[in-house]
């Protein structure tokens, strides 16, 4: 009987694994299984289960909570969601963040539509203010951040960047799962795609496969807000006067740019940057409506013209500015800031622009946060071109403004830092320096300043701990990975340009606990490895930033 039981256990699963083509084998296996069914009750009885008894069923896990068709995810249920869902699009957000709340509405619309049309695609959300471990695991630096998980792969999610609207989320997902472009076989089809939206992109290729074509397909997947088509039709080539592999951008039905495409000479990032610049005008005015769109375009360098739009010289200045923009499209984004618009006040503060300065021109590198000032006072095509070329060639020097060092900067428990004394104090190798970066106009900063003063008094007489603060709106400090005001950085004793990010609670107790844990005595800090690194390993909570250049 034991042998018979073993045979049944082998036969039943085997019936599901026989190849479809072997129908004769499959039928034979199925028949053998059915022939043995009468023996199952007696076999079960011998194993201690009566003929009328059944094995206990496993308890079903409760469904993962949903809000507006979106799975509410946390550390405890995330693995389960990945196992149960083939395609999972997840928003990592901060509940009180304005951008997160705006995105949540569009995210919910897309989730509701696709739940009916494509049930194998699900949407989820993670509140990183509560799920800090997940924030760290997926290296979430911006809010909101959206990532796409396929087939339960937790380690290799795909970033979904620059998507803000429900329709764009749906298109992005469809292009990720299915074809990313429409195949064009006739001029009529091409015209339909070109005229269906304000902006459209057509790839003209001699063959449908190859390096350049694959880059085009990948680009289409990451730019869901625009229609993409691809053609190998000789008729379509002739209709648009195309002779070689070309990526053509059409705006309002008219060609605005042709980019010759060669294998190995183009990458997805550059192509996305080029295409997305055409979603904006040559010169984009900064306002509430365009502020988000400006940062969605992956151009890392912005040039800003600060000028009043009602000035007598505005038309000539704007004409020169727009003329210069043509040459640098895809490399530098040209932005206009109206200095008469009171809502732009924060921008003026950030760049330290006053009425005396205008018209003024500044370049901002979004990666390094470095700012550059145009040497010439007059805004002309020639001066603008010279300034942009100087920056792109690496010859321009960053403009680093600083307040003057106050006479009593070190007289109080909290030391007052400015640009001119920051490096000397923060990177003093005999001191542990904890710095608050604040903005005077920020309500959150003003609320925290009394707590920071208490922390200063607590460590006023400590031999090697310094509590300091700096008005970051008036002093440029070339640190990487800066945050919203207020933010805090710890500079350990004996550090070689190391910076530790503080991401704990904003309370006196939490600040003090962090200091006690991170601070090192002079003797300990002096011990170095041959490479110059501290022998003590950094804890997991520390985020260490190494400067690319000496400050």
Account of the 3D structure:
This protein is α/β, with parallel strands linked by helices. It is built from 19 helices and 22 strands. The chain has a six-stranded mixed beta sheet with strand order 1-2-4-3-5-6. It has a six-stranded mixed beta sheet with strand order 17-19-18-20-21-22. It has a five-stranded mixed beta sheet with strand order 7-9-8-10-11, sandwiched between helices. A hairpin with a 2-residue loop joins strand 1 (66-67) and strand 2. The protein is globular and about 80 Å long. The model is unreliable at 1-49 and 523-551 (pLDDT under 50).
Principal-axes geometry comes out as globular
Structural class: alpha/beta
Q: What's the quaternary structure here?
A: single chain
How many DSSP helices?
19
Could you give a quick summary of the protein structure above?
The chain is an alpha/beta fold and 551 residues long. The chain contains 19 helices and 22 strands. α13 packs parallel to α15 (381-392).
What labels would you give this structure?
551 residues; alpha/beta; six-stranded mixed β-sheet; 36% helix; globular; disordered C terminus
Topology diagram in text:
Elements (H helix, E strand, L loop, with lengths): L1 H16 L5 H14 L3 H7 L19 E2 L2 E3 L5 H7 L2 E7 L4 H20 L3 E7 L4 H6 L7 E6 L7 E2 L6 H12 L4 E3 L2 H10 L2 E6 L6 H12 L5 E4 L2 H6 L6 E6 L2 E7 L7 H10 L5 E3 L5 H6 L4 E7 L6 H14 L5 E6 L6 H7 L8 E6 L5 E3 L7 H12 L21 E4 L4 H5 L5 E7 L4 H16 L6 E7 L15 E5 L6 E4 L6 H11 L3 H5 L17 E3 L5
Parallel strand pairs: 2-4, 3-4, 7-9, 8-9, 12-14, 13-14, 17-19, 18-19
Antiparallel strand pairs: 1-2, 3-5, 5-6, 8-10, 10-11, 13-15, 15-16, 18-20, 20-21, 21-22
Helix pairs in contact: 1-2, 5-7, 9-11, 13-15
